[in-house]
Predict the 3D structure of the following.
Amino acid sequence: MSAVLTIDKLTKRFGGLTAVSDVSFALKAGEFLALIGPNGAGKTTCFNMLNGYIKPDGGTVALKGRPITGLAPRAVWRLGVGRTFQITQTFASMTVAENVQMALISHHRRTLDLFSRASRLYRAEAEALLSRVGMLGEADRAATALAYGDLKRLELAVALAHAPTVLLMDEPTAGMAQAERTALMALVADIVAAEGLSVLFTEHDMDVVFNHAHRVLVLNRGELIAEGTGEEIRANATVQAVYLGGGTLSSFGATPPQNGGVSP
Amino acid sequence: MMGFYFAQLLTGLANASSLFLIASGLSIIFGVTRVVNFAHGSLYMLGAYIAYSLVTTLPGVFGFWTGVILAAVATAFIGAAIEILILRRIYHSPELFQLVATFGVVLIVQDAALAIWGSEDLLGPRAPLLDRAVRIFGEPIPEYDLALIVIGPVVLGLIWLLFQRTRWGILVRAATQDREMVGALGVNQHVLFTSTFMVGSFLAGLGGALQVPRESVNLLMDLNIIGQAFVVVVIGGMGSVTGAFVAAVIISVANAFGVLVWPQISLILPFLVMAVVLIVRPYGLFGTPASAHGASVPEAPLRAMPPAGIAVAAIVAVGAALLPLADDGFLLVLGIDLLVAMLFAASLHLLMGVGGMVSFGHAAYFGLGAYAAALAVKSLGLPMLPAMLLGPVAAAFGAMVFGWFCVRLSGVYLAMLTLAAAQILWGITFQWQSVTGGDDGILGVWPARWASDRAVYFYIALALCGAGLLIIRRIAHSPFGYVLRGGRDSALRAEAIGIDLKAHQWLGFILAGALAGVAGSVFVFSKGSVFPDTLAIGHSVDGLIMVLLGGVQSLLGPLFGAAAFVLIEDWVMRLDHWRAIFGVIILAIVLLAPDGIAGGVGRLLTLLRLRRPA
């Protein structure tokens, strides 16, 4: 498998704190890659440097060999990198379908169109995307009326709208019930398998990570301390020490640390 | 010479003290309640009037200072009454809706003050024991000014102690940071909000009372001070008392020296300083991003107009077109006024409702349109129609220049920068006598001969404003309009789907400006003249009230709001105490329809539908 996203020696400092230090890894084509680590490990900072939300102090990010370090998020998106947020970001005053249509309108560069009816543009494509995530029945409801799990699905449909080669998902299951988590990640795994896109996701729920990820990266205090398959990571002594002072990773899958999904 | 400059500095610092008092109260109130309190200037004026009555009654030194303090206390209770009777009921309305209510209070207080104290300027006594001047570097400095210079920092120190050392102060600071969290911790919000309003009102009243020995007490004090107070609060950072102090000093001292260079600069200097500060520090000197936004209420998705709605709109349009048949002259004039107001309000709604960019200075672009059209006729000698075309072009150009800066900010800070822009343009039209005629305005801008018949001009107004309204509706439903709404809902999501939001907002600003310019062009030929007050804050506030009163969350809102505003104003202006009556009507609408007229009509329709047997 060839690398789609190559991260080389990525570094970010906030004042005296080095949040991310010399992190290098590659996301391969068709790979479902997890980035895990305890709270404050630098996952979100690392994540936000990949698509331009934070400018790194050092290191490079390349998409299929093309450097994208320092580009604005919208430019990274245009090159085929989609993302979902830990706390869902949707357009509250639009319907579910319109949320997806907006991404399609932007993808087709129609945002400066002053006279078409937005709600009629790319409706069929939007419906196809919604049915892909099982949300077709909700197409004409207001986005504000959705349950949180459904909002996550809507965000996924929006992120898939421009047929990205890479999808970055920041804690995709944060704030969801256990059954919903499993269902959502099964859906993502299914999409990865069917459409060959590459997904990098951060996650706290170890069940989700070990059930679905092809490979796992472990970040601690800004440094990459381990990389490997789920089995290898579970057996890794350093990772065990970091996480539970010697406990095994699989033993706390049932009680994942809860920190996401609710705004502060 | 040295002495003269030092005296000038001291005058500036003395002015800073009273400006700080009113601004700190405004800032504290905004920080906790997120209310942009337009009535704060009224509280300041009431403090001055009450103090005048007290110090002219109570004798001696003790009497003077007792009078000042009592006036501040009385103002605090008036503030509490306003909060409990009015604002408490509408905290959960859309952002800035409370501003309309406080404007209603402004009108009522103006009439009340007129009724109680009369229209004459009142000259208060000098402060006993502080009624002389001392010589510093050979320049006479009023002792009272020196006292004020001391009072400002002392009050700042007392507020600091109150905020740091009392439970109440800690709660106020916490609420300024995160109001929901403080509510979640079980703090009684009613008590906190009312007491905050009382403290803010006390400071405004104190500021007014302390001015009594320095300047005459009059009915213009409220609106004269409010613009500057807003500027100070914004420069300092909304919610920051220290910021208010620093900003008051900067503004007052800059003013004291600025007038030496160019006497008229005091009209625009505060706004220039604010514009510069906001461009460099988008949240003011001591402000934080969290303090920029008020409550936001989720808005329903846009729907296409149902057939019944289209039928009603068609009937209204046909009715309007037939109006000249029922002509008695007066109706047509009112009709043109209505059309102009509707387009003005709808263009503001495109900006603030659809785009989420609240403007406190939209009249600037209306005025630019009006002035450009007038100058095209009077100075360039263009015929009417090309002149009318030049109006929106000039307005779009102005919006392009100022909008570029404004879209870099958000929330109340953006609103304040639009206010600064409008104030600067107003200052230019007011001062640039050789071109704009200054205060005398431009007269004799009448329609071309073929359009001089009132019915013909009515049709021109109907065509232009009607087209403008249709275009706005079309834009709101277009991909571009959706981008603006999307950016308002979640700027993060807009960026994450590849949208350059600032560029779209800038274009939105320009479009809204151009459409306001159309309204201005139509306006100037219907009146035959234009004066600087078309660009003034008052006119911008009229527009805001139309939009908010009508309902900011509905495309029809600004049309309802403009119609209500123009019709009520037309009727009420002929009555005695029209301000108070207008104020009461505004308050009644605000309290009965917290989601504006459009929201109220919507709820009424739902109710009727439910009543109807199935």
